[in-house]
Amino acid sequence: MSTENSALIVRVPVERLRHIEGFSRKRVQGLVDKIRSEGVWIKPLALDDAHDLVLDGQHRMEVARTLGLKWVPAVRYRYADVELWSLRPNHAFDWREVTRRALAEDPDPYKTVKHRFPDGGLPACLPFSLGGAVRMSAVEHVIILAAGKSLQLDGISKILIRHPADGRTILDWAIEAFAGKRITVVVGFRAIQIMQAYPDLDYIHNPEWALTNNAMSLGLALTEEPAYVVSGDIFIERRLIERLDRDVPDLVLTSRREKRSLSAVHCVLDDAGRVIEPYQGPVRDMAHPESVGLFKVSSPEVLRQWRRRCIEHSNLFAGQLLPCSPPCVQSVSLEDELFFEVNTPTDYMELIRSRARS
After folding, report:
1. What is the pLDDT of residue 272?
2. Residue 99: which residues within 8 A CB-CB, separation 6 or more?
3. I need a labelling partner for 234 at 20 to 30 A (CA). Which of 25, 295, 314, 333 fits?
4. Could you give the 3-state DSSP secondary structure of residue 310?
């Protein structure tokens, strides 16, 4: 391969990358923290030119996924021109075998394959700003969980509750707050009533809505597509979503309010403000903020784990099952934006009073 080609740094979509060996999640998280802190990406990945297999940069590939990057800088090589050897004793292979295993989604174990690249090795690249050339991908999908029946609200579908100030429903407010994004509503109780009123939205039906909690609804709706997840009983305003769009790729909206219900889900955080344990019930420590029912998740691994756990434990709240090993979901505090949850007649009376006070 010529020197000119080997030094050519190109943009490669993250979704096209494939691992050739395993990686250390601890090291990934360390790199995530470093890159988030510095705000720049300074080293390209090395790829084979036939399949975009990652020859050098397994951890950087996972960092890019975690940060929700659309593309990364990379150099492509003809794999047959790259020298490779094993770091494991008595383990022999060639580039064809590495390629075969990677394409079969059966990559070698962590620290197995070592490469020496031609023409002086992997070149350096100019730093790319995470807010500029390597932009975080926007979360364009919204999942609204609205399958349950409210036992305390006279059998009304909560997503159709109208705000006393303007007569618009919770779903109307959500459509405005998430304007420009694709909305999927998970329905169950009064499904036809909701779909008739809003025929232009996407829907998923949870046939077991009366027997399960909202974890089942989320499990039916989640894919590896980055998504906002929100409970269907909350009035939300657009400026909150605009702020969260600018924030980290994986987050849970939290509040440190003192008055909490016994069914609330709380978050134990590490020193960096990431969730290390969600739990439901009486709060153990007021330093544990409450998860208030809004999430933004971009990491494919978090999305996969969350979906699997929701299906396996469908009788729980989705927030209880938020993956946190390793911790990568950031707690982001609710500020002065409108965010009002209606679970009881008393909640709605408070909403009426707040309208009178404003």
Report:
1. 80
2. 20, 48, 50, 51, 53, 79
3. 314
4. helix
**Cα 101–Cα 106–Cα 109 angle in degrees, nearest 5:** 100
Which residues have a Cβ under 8 Å from the Cβ of 146 and sit 6 or more positions away? Answer: 157, 158, 159, 171, 185, 186, 187, 188, 194, 232, 233
pLDDT value, residue 126: 56
Taking a C-beta distance cutoff of 8 angstroms, is the pair 273, 331 a contact? Answer: yes
Closest CA to 110 of 222, 28, 52, 192: 28
d(CA 89, CA 288): 48
What would the pLDDT profile of 254-295 be if each residue is shown by its tens digit? 999 988 988 899 999 988 888 999 999 999 999 999 999 999
Parallel/antiparallel/unpaired status of strands 227-231 and 290-297: antiparallel
Q: Note the pLDDT tens digit of each residue in 111-128.
A: 999 999 987 777 766 566
Q: Is 52 left (phi over 0), alpha (psi -120 to 50) or beta?
A: left
How far apart CA 50 and CA 205 sit, in angstroms, is 41
How far apart are alpha carbons 91 and 89 in whole angstroms? 5
**Does 129 score more than 90 pLDDT?**
no
In this prediction, residues 77-106 reach a mean pLDDT of 91
